[in-house]
Input
Amino acid sequence: MKPSGLKVPPVDAPLDWLETRSFALRPAEGLAQHRQFLLDLATLQLGTRDDADDVVQETFAAALEGLHSFSGKVPLRAWLVGILRHKIIDAIRQRTRYVRLDTDETIQANDQEFDDHFSNDGSWQPSVLNGSCPEAMLAHRELLELIEVCMQKLPSNTAKVFLMREFLDLDFSEIAERMSLEEGNLRVLLYRARMRLRDCVSRGWTSL
Amino acid sequence: MNEYVGNGGGISCRESTWLVSEARDRLLNREETDGLQMHIDGCQYCQIAAQQFSDLLGNLAIVLARNSDIDRKSLSGRAGNRATGSAEN
Output
């Protein structure tokens, strides 16, 4: 597809047709809008702003090079995040050692945190379920905000391992090894992140 | 891992949330899968919760563009190595 030649959206135009087209016309501006988000995400994973800057630069370079392959089927941010993911994984795997997690947060990891979610026999307390989330929240754009919510609302180490798993897609055992975490602790951290994020879905993103 | 208590499928709601979480990270064994399924089938609360987890986690792959064109074609090697079968609850 050659977006620059389009005057009107084609019949099967992606929802983000406008974004797709404006990105094709002014790619640098399109990228700049997402810079901070990508930097935050990379900083969480890599630990330093310098390292984050490097991978975001590489991501932008790859994005500009691969402009033609941006179809608009996913939001621009999601597309960039997809590229960034590879850059972060490469950076992580080039390291011979990984910064250990803050021990306090890890040691405190336990599942008593959700005691108020369940009765004594382990049944759900209906009040924390609140029905299903509205369809609108499932839109890609809103779900992308999940990552921001995750970064802002979860303890940083919890967010870090959760995104190593769900975003970087590293194996459970690789995460445990790289973070010098016992598997039991990692399991709890991941559980905690998912339970907390489910709470978000249940309550709606805005009422955290 | 957990002590099973006498609820639907032999597990409690709380234990079912653990299994839903762990299904993202490893393949559940047959006993766990059956227990989870039986429990969810018989528990309206867990049906709601499972839907919420599914909405949340099941869509992450799409949202994060793990399977986008550039993921597969332009950047070789890393994509698609996940056991997606275990992630679909």
Remarks:
- Chain B has a mean pLDDT of 70.
- Chain B touches chain A through 42 residues (CB under 8 Å).
- Chain B has five helices and no strands.
- Residues 8 and 43 of chain B are 7 Å apart (CA to CA).
